[in-house]
Amino acid sequence: MEANQIACPSCNSNNLTAKYEAKYVYSYIIDSNAPGLKNDQELLPFLYDNREQVESTQYIKCENCGRQFPCFFSAKSNGIDLNDLQKVLSYDHNE
Ligand SMILES: [Zn+2]
After folding, report:
1. How close is the Cα of 11 to the center of ligand 1, in Å?
2. What separation in Å is there between the alpha carbon of 61 and the centre of ligand 1?
3. Of 19, 53, 54, 76, which sees the most CB atoms within 10 A?
4. Which of 54-58, 71-75, 82-86 has the lowest average pLDDT?
């Protein structure tokens, strides 16, 4: 493996994707018509009154073998670079 390449340590594939899973609770205030102050006739899911993120997880996933590597790529203001990615993939993750 060349120094400027990143690959899955399990299968050596470079088919890697950064995944960002998030869970949100959307709230619609009940009023005289359809739920949500911004909805009149029907509830349109994107016209919410409040949205709260309750969970989020980020990881790098190998699309070839399915192995996942925990990683917070949005934590650094300038993103993560190649060095960071190589570090993430080199950790010994026992599942
Ligand atoms: Zn793999």
Report:
1. 4
2. 8
3. 19
4. 71-75
Ligand 1 centroid to Cα of residue 66, in Å, is 6
Separation of alpha carbons 39 and 28, rounded Å: 9
Cα 91 to Cα 22, 32, 44, 61: the distances in Å are 24, 55, 44, 14
From the CA of 45, how far away is ligand 1's center (Å)? 37
CA–centroid distance, residue 89 to ligand 1 (Å): 10
* pTM score of the predicted model: 0.64
